[in-house]
Design goal:
Elements: H1 4-7, E1 10-13, H2 29-34, H3 36-41, E2 46-49, H4 77-89, E3 93-98, H5 108-113, E4 127-128, E5 148-151, E6 156-159, H6 174-190, E7 194-197, H7 230-240, E8 248-252, H8 258-265, E9 275-277, E10 286-287, E11 289-293, H9 298-312, E12 319-320, H10 330-333, H11 340-352, E13 357-361, H12 382-393, H13 398-408, H14 445-450, H15 455-468, H16 470-474, E14 478-480, E15 487-494, E16 497-504, E17 510-513, E18 524-528, E19 539-542, E20 547-551
Parallel strand pairs: 1-2, 1-13, 2-3, 3-7, 7-8, 8-9, 12-13
Antiparallel strand pairs: 4-6, 5-6, 10-11, 14-15, 15-16, 16-20, 17-19, 18-20
Helix pairs in contact: 11-15, 12-13
The chain binds 1-deoxynojirimycin (NOJ).
């Protein structure tokens, strides 16, 4: 079924590092408003904001203290209304991040809940007595030690799957669900067009909070990921609020597979989410997490992509991304620093031309890369510190941990956006809150804008092509050269038109012959990242990280 959310492309802003307009070193709404024309120039149709709400920043905004306001660090609610108006004027939709698996420990609800067992907010969270001297169960937090924090006044523990500053909300309490609905209505009535729902698959915890299988790091996850009432609670949100507005919802869904996802995203009466952010394609160079490195494996990547493409076709919808604020930069991972421009373009074509709604993360469009920091004092993220402690307990040296952190930390994607070759990459006139990647002198928006061969201008072309060619949006998908560990080849078909996307993931030369039924000499080469268009015997030799897209 055709739908606007299938036709849009979305630009993600992580506000703290996007653009500072008042010289305090922190990105803000003024900076975003300044850059709306730039965002529009990318040929995207919507902006997803990572949290803009007031927050003590235990997890940089993913710990919300006030759900119906804008953080004073970023601006005011009045200014946000201006931002919505200015964005809509440019035909840019606005998508808010909704973080409701947990709140901040500075949220009024939590402050009240701590006041006593009889407080009406007490049951908004999971407060439990210990078992003798032990915690209520053996769950381990994903961000900070054990998943329970003790409160002496109450002689009870509260559950925090993420950091101590992010107590989990008790969705089994109908009052909590009413609060969430009221938050949804608040922003929708203000004019926003949709939500990205943070770790939404964690909101329903197993009854009785039983002990987890004793694995390190994620112990307990089987009792809160994809929990018993997840579908029911999401349906309640859909029926009571979302269905009444013309909005869309993408749910973040760690550990998701197409089979499990279909329960939530299959179009029809039982659908609760429009699409999901799964993580499987982000694991082609690691084991479950970026922190456990493995050699990049293209076949693993292709298998995941083809599986999602095929299983969802015509019944559900994919969300496509290769970067966000939770992962290191993709060129460092699946591309090549030596062939930064070539591989940056290739990766863009490879994922954006698949079936699904593409998301582009700030800085990705200019090919920003990881930063190397030389001491732990320079890092800022709760997860970095958690992993430092974990590696330390395994006996690793600081030097080794620093090396791992520089490669794997999500802080790599949180360095300020590089706008110009001037001081601080033009991000701020003050002192930036976090290190600017020193390569801003070569990699920045201003220079990329002027260079017709830049990654930036490739993204613009690519996203325009997607907009103008329904085959990219509604076409089917078929993979070729499946056994190759060097190239990724797929075709799309729609209403008599055909598209062939050929991408190389290596710096070695690779011989390619068009699949049966494709005549390259009659196809139009619509996108490419090298000047050479030579075709010999209905094939060509791919140069390092080359991509070619043919249309018939
Ligand atoms: C997923 C978010 O993307 C991430 O940044 C955050 O730390 C966790 N959820 C917890 O909210």
């Amino acid at each position: 079924m055709k739908n606007w959310y299938k036709e849009i492309s979305v630009y993600q802003i992580w506000p703290r590092s996007f653009k500072d307009s008042n010289g305090d070193g922190i990105g803000d709404l003024g900076g975003i408003i300044e850059k709306l024309d730039y965002i529009k120039s990318l040929n995207v149709d919507a902006i997803w904001f990572s949290p803009l709400y007031p927050s003590p920043n235990a997890d940089y905004g993913y710990d919300i203290a006030d759900y119906k306001n804008i953080s004073p660090e970023y601006g005011t609610l009045e200014q946000f209304k201006v931002l919505i108006k200015e964005a809509h004027k440019r035909d840019l939709k606005i998508i808010m991040d909704l973080v409701v698996n947990h709140t901040s420990d500075e949220c009024e609800w939590f402050k009240e809940s701590k006041k006593g067992h009889d407080n009406p907010y007490h049951d908004y969270y999971f407060w439990r007595k210990g078992k003798g001297k032990k915690r209520p169960n053996n769950w381990i937090s994903l961000f900070e030690g054990k998943a329970w924090k003790y409160n002496e006044d109450l002689d009870e523990y509260y559950l925090h799957v993420f950091s101590e500053g992010q107590p989990d909300l008790n969705w089994d309490n109908p009052k909590v669900r009413e609060e969430v609905k009221s938050i949804l209505r608040f922003w929708l009535d203000l004019g926003v067009d949709g939500f990205r729902e943070d770790v939404i698959t964690y909101i329903s915890k197993a009854e009785g909070l039983p002990n987890g299988f004793p694995i390190p790091a994620a112990c307990g996850m089987e009792h809160y990921s994809n929990g018993p009432h997840l579908h029911e609670y999401l349906m309640e949100m859909r029926k009571d609020v979302l269905d009444k507005y013309d909005c869309f919802v993408v749910g973040e869904a760690p550990m998701m597979t197409p089979k499990k996802a279909k329960k939530f995203i299959t179009e029809g009466e039982n659908q609760t989410l429009d699409m999901m952010f799964h993580f499987q394609h982000m694991e082609a160079d690691c084991l479950f997490t970026d922190w456990v490195h493995m050699p990049f494996n293209l076949r693993k990547l292709k298998k995941v992509y083809s599986n999602w493409q095929k299983k969802l076709y015509k019944t559900a919808w994919n969300a496509l991304y290769i970067e966000n604020h939770d992962h290191p930069r993709i060129i460092n991972r699946y591309g090549s620093l030596k062939y930064r421009v070539e591989s940056g373009k290739m990766l863009a074509a490879m994922y954006i031309l698949q079936s699904g709604t593409p998301f582009i993360y700030q800085g990705q469009e200019i090919g920003m890369t990881n930063i190397t920091l030389d001491s732990f004092e320079q890092f800022k993220d709760v997860l970095t510190f958690n992993n430092y402690r974990m590696f330390k307990s395994l006996g690793l040296s600081d030097k080794t941990i620093l090396k791992i952190t520089n490669r794997a930390s999500r802080e790599n994607s949180r360095t300020p956006v590089q706008w110009t070759s001037e001081e601080n990459g033009g991000f701020t006139t003050g002192t930036p809150w976090f290190s600017v990647n020193p390569n801003y002198t070569e990699i920045n928006v201003e220079d990329a804008d002027k260079d017709p061969d830049s990654i930036l201008n490739f993204y613009r072309k690519l996203l325009k092509f997607r907009k103008e060619n329904p085959i990219v949006i509604y076409g089917d998908y078929k993979e070729h050269n499946k056994c190759s560990s060097k190239i990724f080849v797929y075709e799309r078909n729609y209403e008599g038109r055909r598209l062939l996307v050929v991408s190389s993931f290596t710096e070695k030369a690779v011989k390619f012959k068009a699949p049966k039924g494709f005549d390259l000499s009659s196809g139009e080469l619509v996108l490419k990242n090298y000047d050479d268009e030579t075709v010999v015997d209905n094939g060509f030799t791919l140069k390092p990280y080359e991509t070619r897209v043919y249309l018939w």
